[in-house]
């Protein structure tokens, strides 16, 4: 039996819903101050159904040379790495205008 997309009703191989989802997802990068004045960079809005967040977190940690975790579908990195994270995400194929740095 052919798989049909529930959203658009097209066979899965013709469906572009997932691509559209990737293009329309909004990724937010911002920093928060934690206890003792520690700065954390938060990356949210990445679709964890399509993207392996754990792997992405690992990549970001090594690119930014910092610690970090994946928590509740968000990536948390120690320190302020907003611009660096944006560059890495663009390199990985995320559309630049979907990335919002606050
Ligand atoms: Zn579809």
Automatic annotation (TrEMBL):
Q: Does the keyword Flavoprotein apply?
A: no
* InterPro entries, A to Z: DENR/SUI1_TIF, SUI1, SUI1_arc, SUI1_arc_bac, SUI1_dom_sf
* Pfam families with a match to the protein in the record: SUI1
Q: Which residues form the SUI1 domain?
A: 27-93
Coiled-coil stretches noted in the UniProt entry, renumbered to this chain = none
GO MF, one annotated term: mRNA binding
Its signal peptide is none
Key words, A-Z: Initiation factor, Protein biosynthesis, Translation regulation
- Any single biological process term in GO: translation reinitiation
Which PROSITE patterns does the record associate with it? SUI1
Family, similarity comment: Belongs to the SUI1 family.
Kindly provide the name given to this protein in its UniProt entry. Protein translation factor SUI1 homolog
Species of provenance: Methanothermus fervidus (strain ATCC 43054 / DSM 2088 / JCM 10308 / V24 S)
């Amino acid at each position: 039996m052919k798989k049909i997309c529930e959203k658009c009703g097209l066979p899965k191989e013709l469906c572009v819903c997932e691509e559209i989802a990737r293009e329309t997802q909004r990724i937010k990068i911002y920093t928060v101050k934690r206890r003792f004045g520690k700065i954390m960079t938060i990356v949210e809005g990445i679709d964890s159904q399509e993207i392996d967040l754990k792997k992405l977190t690992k990549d970001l940690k090594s690119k930014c040379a910092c610690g970090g975790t994946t928590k509740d579908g968000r990536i948390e990195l120690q320190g302020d790495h907003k611009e660096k994270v944006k560059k890495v995400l663009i390199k990985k194929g995320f559309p630049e205008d979907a990335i919002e740095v606050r």
